[in-house]
Structure formats: structure tokens, C-alpha cells
Amino acid sequence: MPIAANDPGCAPPRCAACAARDTSVCASFADRELTALHGIGRRRMLKAGQVLIWAGDPAAVCANLVSGVLKVVREDPDGRAQIVGLLFPGDFVGELFVEQARETVVALVDADLCLYSRRALEPVLAAQPGAEGLLLRRALGTLAEARRWMLMLGRRHAPEKVAAFLLDMHRRLGVGDRVDLPMGRGAVGEVLGLTIETVSRQMTALKAAGLIALPGGRQVRLLDRAALARIAG
């Protein structure tokens, strides 16, 4: 017999149906414990281009990304904005135990989040065995991702950038030789500092060389990852 949705031992319906639950910080919470986390959160939908967090503002909120992709933007000393990373479903958004946000977080495509007050979230996590350790591991992973991202963007030529991007998306989201890109070519160009036309030309060239296939939509099949890695450098 199904457990009633209001049973204290049952995960809240949104949590039970969440595709990102097992890859987010929520993975350290049992169903009963998720009720406390769910109780301090609220759903937040962002349209592409909307800002969730502004650098320099009080670090008031954190979130779990349920669907969509966010970009993390940092300003150089000369005031130029630079994308320093992407966040995917299951990633934790925002910074705990700081008073001021250091980076701007913007929706690259439409996104669905569970949003929490940082002040309310900190004691919930502190009381949850394993949650803080999981967040520490994720923070270290985020630093590694940021270093990898900067290396990718530091490549000077468009073929290198596109090949490196496809390999990175496959590492994060791939199944077999296939990856379903979470964004269109315009957003890919924004991320890589290229025009949509340049991205399209590079994808077409990789297809003509037999290195990728483009079955349709946003799906890409990586037919020769070794050759793509050589192009990416």
C-alpha cells in the first residue's frame, strides 16, 4: 500500500520525484530527514539570462540545481566578465559560511532550483551526518572543474575550444558515445567566447572529418574521442 504523502517517514513529493536527488547533497539525507530540508526551501524557476546571485551582494541564499544549466561568472580586475564554470543538475549553488558572494550565478538555460536561506540551511546541514563532508568533497571537485574550465577557455583556436567542450560535456553527461548537450549552439558560443556561426562551422567540420555524428536536435555522438583529445590539446 502506498505511503501517504504526509507520512513523516516519507520523502516530500517533490523530493521523491527529483531526478537530481541521488547526485546532490540530498543524497546524504534519509527520506525522513529530507522533510526538514524541504521545510526550509522553496522552488525557484529561472529563465535563461536571469541572475540568481550577484557577486558582491550578501551571501544570503544557496540552492540545489534540479534541472537546467547555470554559468558562474567572475569579474577580472579590469572589469571584464569571464565565465569560470558551469553548474549542472545535482550541483550545489552558492557558498556557505561566507558573508559576501564572490561570483555571479546566471541561468544559461531555463533552470529549476530548490532555494534555501543560507542562515537556515547551515544548522540543518550541521545536524546531518555526512552532509558537510559531502559538501567539502563537492567544493574540492568544483575547484578542479574550475581549473579544467580555465584551461579549456585558455585555448586560442576555435577547433580546440569546441573539441575540448564536447569532451567535457561527454565526461559530465555522456552515455556510451552519446551526449545530449544541455544548451543550444548560441549558448555554447557564449560559453566559449565564439559566435554561433563559428560553433556551427566547427561542429560541421568535425562531422565531415568523421570524428562526431549529429543525429539531430542537441545530440552529439563522439565517434573518435582520441582524435578529439588531440585537437583539444
UniProtKB/TrEMBL annotation:
CDD domains: CAP_ED (cd00038), HTH_CRP (cd00092). Keywords: DNA-binding, Transcription, Transcription regulation. Gene3D superfamilies: Jelly Rolls, Winged helix-like DNA-binding domain superfamily/Winged helix DNA-binding domain. The keyword Membrane does not apply. Residues 156-226 form the HTH crp-type domain. Residues 25-96 form the Cyclic nucleotide-binding domain. InterPro entries: cNMP-bd_dom, cNMP-bd_dom_sf, Env_Response_Regulators, HTH_CRP, RmlC-like_jellyroll, WH-like_DNA-bd_sf, WH_DNA-bd_sf. Coiled coil: none annotated. It comes from the Bacteria. This is Cyclic nucleotide-binding domain-containing protein. It comes from Sphingomonas olei.
